[in-house]
Write a structure and sequence with these properties.
Elements (H helix, E strand, L loop, with lengths): L41 H16 L22 H4 L5 E7 L5 H9 L7 H6 L6 E10 L10 E5 L17 E11 L7 H8 L4 E7 L7 H12 L5 E6 L6 H15 L9 E3 L8 H10 L13 E8 L15 E8 L2 E2 L3 E11 L5 E9 L2 E4 L2 E3 L1 E2 L5 E4 L16 E4 L6 E11 L2 E6 L5 E3 L8 E6 L2 E11 L2 E11 L5 E8 L2 E16 L5
């Protein structure tokens, strides 16, 4: 049975909030005790006072218009009432392992994206990290560029004063971006492809103290080429560890590597993420080189789930339990508080005869969050936490990843078999053969099992028929998708999944969900 949240009569009551949507160390409970002040240990008192002070010192952001009176036609991704609270553009950080992807995100947004114990121990990203940042520009024409660009966390007030000595200007909000921090490890390629499904642009990190290209640098670049990401900024990181001549030589090797790819003509910025050198130059490029994508606010909302959580602490009382939280990015449409929602494919099981069944999950939106900022409605772009009344056990530990969330009865069909028009890469990326050349990609064979990335869903797919460039795939778990959607194909090579090509969905066998 779904855990009931109750309604939130006032803004003081804290709605369900995902731990992944807020910076570490900010997880104290700000609510007063329900039955009057309860005696607390001194250390707890200190903590709660600090939490209350932090909440009080947070700047007030402009109120959003009421969802009922919202004029959808007048909204744009740069409308001040939207951009002050919610990010409207997703930027992925991609590149080889340990080239500084998470460090760059931390330098720009001030948010540490490595949050889990096993990630912190090994100092690598395993799950998709995310962080929001506001990029401002000083309105004083005398303020030199790129110093006039500055980035802050997403709960910063609207117009802070310029921080350059002697400048009288005020920072004006230019962009509000969400960073999707992808893992660089080859084993985690499917996680990276899930992240690529929601990206509008990418920062490609290349460490200057290693030869270019490294295996995952080329593999990630091919992946975003498949996803048709045209806007890329290349960051030559770790220049503080190199001499000037070495940096110039490495710069030329980057140029050579990107020639003829989707990143050809992309700006290359030398930076040091640890020392925060040239971060202002990245901020300038985020505002000038990456256009805000055109969004469709009128269609039915579709949110791709890339993370999901159970936000209840162990040992919570029954009346304190909160429903599950789904984290992801809206592709089209607008989600509002109180909307009746459906999540597909939902709970997948098999009947007595072994046939697959799907039972979509139905619920209502209780709260919407963009990191620490609460929202009355959420628009496409940026990463959103959707608080629901779903049983939290269905959401814990990313169980909803790959599902699609939308209005009840308005979601795409669920497919169990797909007919695809596929295209294979000529050579394998990130795998060298004995003679140092890149291995060739073998043709698809009948009955082989591939991994298919559909949106943020990664599922196994058995090839049941193949002819010329058309293949029929039987999916291990059903996927909610649409015809003409682009999918990535990976094959297991030497115990790792490797990207071998992509495909477009032409037709498929649908599964009728059970709605009782």
């Amino acid at each position: 049975m779904a855990a009931e949240n109750g309604d939130y009569p006032s803004e003081d009551d804290s709605p369900p909030q995902s731990p992944g949507m807020q910076p570490i160390g900010d997880d104290e409970d700000d609510e007063p005790h329900a039955k009057g002040p309860a005696p607390m240990p001194k250390s707890a008192l200190k903590k709660s006072n600090a939490a209350a002070a932090a909440l009080a010192s947070r700047p007030e952001l402009p109120e959003q218009p009421e969802p009922d009176t919202l004029d959808v036609a007048s909204l744009s991704p740069t409308s001040p009432e939207i951009i002050c609270r919610q990010a409207t553009i997703n930027i992925g950080t991609i590149g080889h392992v340990a080239h500084g992807k998470s460090t760059v995100v931390k330098a720009i947004s001030g948010v540490q994206t490595v949050r889990f114990k096993n990630e912190l121990e090994r100092n690598i990203t395993i799950k998709l990290g995310y962080a929001n940042a506001k990029v401002y520009k000083c309105d004083n024409p005398e303020c030199p560029r790129p110093t006039c660009y500055r980035s802050y966390k997403s709960d910063k007030e609207v117009d802070p004063p310029c921080e350059r000595d002697g400048c009288e200007g005020t920072y004006r909000l230019e962009r509000h971006v969400s960073f999707v921090d992808c893992p660089g490890h080859d084993i985690l390629m499917s996680t990276m492809l899930s992240g690529a499904a929601v990206m509008d642009a990418a920062l490609l990190l290349i460490a200057g103290n290693e030869p270019c290209p490294q295996p995952q640098t080329s593999e990630h670049l091919a992946a975003i080429e498949i996803m048709k990401l045209g806007h890329i900024i290349i960051l030559q990181n770790k220049v503080d560890l190199m001499r000037e001549e070495a940096a110039a030589t490495h710069f030329e090797s980057i140029r050579k590597f990107i020639r003829g790819t989707v990143a050809d003509n992309a700006p290359i910025i030398p930076i040091s993420a640890q020392l925060k050198f040239n971060i202002d130059a990245i901020n300038e490029m985020l505002c000038t080189k990456i256009p805000v994508p055109l969004r469709n606010f009128q269609d039915n909302p579709h949110l791709i789930v890339i993370r999901s959580f159970d936000v209840n602490k162990p040992g919570s009382e029954i009346e304190e339990l909160q429903g599950g939280v789904a984290g992801g990015s809206i592709l089209t449409g607008i989600l509002k508080l109180g909307d009746e929602i459906e999540i597909r494919p939902g709970i997948v099981s098999r009947d007595d005869k072994g046939n697959i069944q799907c039972k979509p999950i139905f619920s209502r939106i209780i709260s919407l969050f963009a990191e620490n900022n609460s929202l009355k409605f959420a628009v496409p772009g940026g990463l959103i936490g959707v608080g629901t009344r779903i049983d939290p056990t269905l959401c814990r530990a990313d169980r909803l990843v790959g599902f699609v969330l939308g209005l009840k009865g308005k979601l795409p069909k669920i497919y169990t078999e797909l007919e695809v028009n596929y295209f294979l890469l000529r050579r394998l990326l990130g795998v060298k053969t004995a003679d140092g050349k890149q291995a060739k990609v073998a043709k698809l064979a009948k009955n082989e099992v591939l991994m298919v990335n559909i949106g943020s869903t990664a599922t196994g797919a058995k090839v049941i028929a193949v002819k010329a460039d058309i293949a029929k795939l039987q999916l291990t778990s059903p996927a909610c998708t649409e015809i003409k959607e682009k999918v990535a194909l990976s094959r297991r090579i030497e115990k790792h999944w490797r990207l071998i090509g992509w495909a477009t969905i032409e037709a498929g066998t649908t599964l009728e969900p059970q709605n009782e």
